[in-house]
Design a protein that fits this description.
Layout (H helix, E strand, L loop, with lengths): L4 H16 E2 L2 E2 L11 H15 L13 H6 L8 H16 L16 E2 L8 H4 L4 H21 L6 H26 L2 E7 L3 H10 L6 H11 L1 H9 L18 E7 L30 H14 L2 H6 L4 H25 L13 E2 L5 E2 H18 L3 H17 L20 E5 L10 E5 L2 H15 L3 H20 L33 H19 L6 H23 L7 H20 L4 H25 L4
Antiparallel strand pairs: 1-2, 3-9, 4-5, 6-7, 8-9
Helix pairs in contact: 1-2, 1-18, 2-6, 2-18, 4-7, 6-7, 6-11, 7-13, 11-13, 13-14, 14-15, 14-16, 15-16, 15-17, 16-17, 16-18, 19-20, 19-21, 20-21
């Protein structure tokens, strides 16, 4: 891998510290202005590596690496850095907490008007959005894990009190964010002959078979998901649609809307989360918000969260409800994306949603859910290779790995990004709001790394790592190269030179984009740290080599080689040790087993040749 995540993350830390901490204060000054999402993204540029990569830990001051301290010099020394981060994190939570104690999850500066030249109302800027719920889950879990370790290093009562206050505030915000996700879950039920039904059937009917046959097969494939949605989803939004799923003539889709769903019931919880706002969002899933919600829930159920015991009993109860929705949503979209016995709907690019909008970006989001489902449900390398082909095609179609020489429509997904309306946002007065996403490159990079981690086919794995290197070259070309924000993102004209310089944005860092690049580098570091899946081919070669080596070894023992001198006996004992080691590493590292077996075979052949010479044989 050419990405070198350690060095890249250290450089980003240096730039983030330089931009964010001045005159003893944490500065929040991104391209989109301060809001509950952008400010969290800025903090996570440091907190994500610090809590997910052991080499970047800051919660044990005496164990912080020297190069880490050098890069974070703007934040202070090894004792000052964690304290200043704690103060910045506390200020973030206080800033986005209402006077009555209710956490604020508004989209604010990330909202756009879907109607040209029409001004957004203040009430619309204050609407809660799933992106804020999701990133708050990620940040609050990072805080909880950070405090869990750092508390052991504290002795001063004032600092202990500061840490305990942050822990309480983070726990409250985490509970509120989880409640918001439960109230934003959407189940859209429709008949097979509706517009929604027509689009869904068109997507899954890759063989152009009789419509009714496809409808019946799709209902059968979704039967278990239907039953669990109907019987097990009992709290939050999505529960009311259960009765409609009883009708065998209905189809459905599930996921997360852009915010709290209209008429979503309040969650009965013991957590002190303040008021639960009335929802206005359309009761239908949005692929982008579904993806970010799934990523957040994955953090809630991660081994790290369980190992450190980061959730209290009430949060564990809420997590169970979110985990159910996670499994159902992931299974639903993976079933739809791979439906049929021939060409997958996922492979028919671009993906077309049930409201008739099609885009390669949607293909990437669906592909990501398929990859996540493969991680949890298991899959064959054949299926993983099919998804790998989709990722390679997406990189070419979006002009990440294929050269673009003049303005073309494919570039719009990078800049200015893909816009989609937030239906229901007009209900509080003002125009319909819109959301913009421009993260196809880092999202593709991250999913490519996820897929590489799963592949046991060496050639396919190498292809995915090679693709990730190509995407990283694209991302590097978009890095800001001058000014205080140098070393951060985003500068689209770096990758697409024909874009006007002003298209690079107002000259400030985009924490939205930079945080996603950091996520990619964290994934790259984890890929390097974790053991790769053992190669089945190398395993078979290792087995054959070891069988032959053990046969020859046993023959040397039978022929009495050990009686021919101390040196030969020692040599044969060492060969026996190497054979046992090769057998022990074979399940995890078949390539190492092959190397050991080859070395053993060479030594045994020399022994055999020497024995033949001693007996006069040539």
């Amino acid at each position: 891998m050419q990405t070198q995540p350690r060095q890249q993350l250290l450089d980003i830390w240096q730039a983030t510290a330089r931009v964010s901490y001045r005159d003893g204060e944490w500065i929040r000054d991104g391209r989109n202005g301060g809001n509950s999402i952008s400010d969290a993204e800025q903090l996570l540029c440091i907190m994500a590596p610090a809590t997910q990569i052991p080499l970047f830990r800051l919660d044990r001051p005496d164990a912080v690496a020297g190069d880490v301290l050098e890069k974070l010099r703007a934040l202070g020394d090894n004792r000052q850095i964690p304290v200043r981060l704690i103060r910045a994190l506390t200020a973030y939570i206080d800033r986005y907490t209402a006077p009555d104690g209710t956490p604020i999850f508004s989209g604010s500066g990330y909202f756009r008007s879907d109607v040209e030249d029409e001004e957004i109302k203040q009430a619309q800027r204050e609407l809660d959005v799933v992106d804020s719920f999701s990133i708050s889950v990620t940040l609050m879990l990072a805080i909880a894990g950070f405090i869990k370790i750092f508390r052991q290093e504290l002795g001063r009562p004032a600092l202990i009190e500061l840490v305990e206050q942050l822990e309480q505030k983070a726990s409250r915000r985490l509970s509120a964010a989880m409640t918001g996700l439960l109230r934003s879950f959407a189940v859209n039920v429709f008949s097979a002959d509706s517009d929604f039904g027509d689009e869904l059937i068109r997507t899954v009917n890759q063989g152009r078979r009789p419509v009714q046959q496809v409808v019946d097969e799709l209902r059968e494939a979704l039967r278990e998901i239907n039953a669990r949605l109907r019987d097990d989803v009992t709290i939050g939004s999505g529960a009311a649609e259960g009765s409609e799923l009883d009708n065998p003539n209905r189809l459905f889709e599930c996921g997360w809307s852009w915010g709290v769903v209209r008429e979503a019931p309040e969650i009965d919880t013991q957590a002190a989360i303040g008021a639960q706002k009335a929802g206005v969002a359309q009761n239908a899933p949005y692929l982008y918000f579904t993806t970010v919600a799934l990523d957040a829930i994955q953090e809630l159920t991660s081994p790290r969260t369980r190992l450190l015991g980061l959730l209290d009993p009430e949060q564990a109860r809420l997590t169970q409800s979110l985990q159910l929705r996670y499994e159902l949503t992931q299974s639903y979209w993976a079933t739809v994306a791979t439906f049929g016995g021939g060409k997958w709907p996922l492979e028919d690019m671009p993906w077309r949603t049930t409201d008739g909008i099609e885009a390669d970006y949607f293909t990437l989001l669906i592909g990501g859910m398929v990859v996540q489902n493969m991680q949890s449900a298991g899959s064959s390398d054949t299926d993983r290779r099919r998804v790998a082909n989709v990722m390679e095609d997406l990189a070419a179609r979006s002009r990440i790995t294929r050269r673009s020489t003049e303005p073309e429509s494919a570039i719009a997904v990078h800049y200015p990004g893909m816009h989609f309306p937030l239906e229901g946002s007009e209900d509080v007065g003002g125009p319909t709001l819109a959301w913009t996403v421009a993260d196809i490159s880092p999202t593709l990079f991250r999913r490519t790394l996820n897929l590489a981690q799963m592949l046991t086919d060496g050639a396919a794995r190498s292809r995915m790592i090679g693709l990730s290197d190509d995407i990283w070259k694209h991302l590097r070309s978009r890095m800001i190269t001058d000014g205080d924000d140098r070393g951060l993102w985003d500068r689209p004209a770096g990758a697409f030179p024909y874009l006007a310089k002003e298209d690079d944005g107002p000259g400030k860092v985009s924490w939205y984009y930079t945080k996603r690049v950091v996520d990619c580098l964290v994934s790259a570091a984890q890929l390097i740290q974790e053991a790769s899946p053992p190669s089945e081919l190398l395993g078979r070669v290792a087995d054959d080599l070891l069988d032959e080596a053990e046969y020859l070894y046993d023959r040397e023992l039978l022929n009495g080689t050990t009686t021919r001198g101390v040196g030969l006996k020692v040599e044969l004992d060492q060969i026996g040790l190497e054979l046992r080691r090769a057998r022990s590493v074979r399940p995890r590292r078949p390539g190492v087993a092959v190397a050991l077996a080859q070395e053993v075979l060479g030594r045994l052949d020399r022994l055999s040749a020497a024995r033949g010479a001693d007996s006069g044989l040539t």
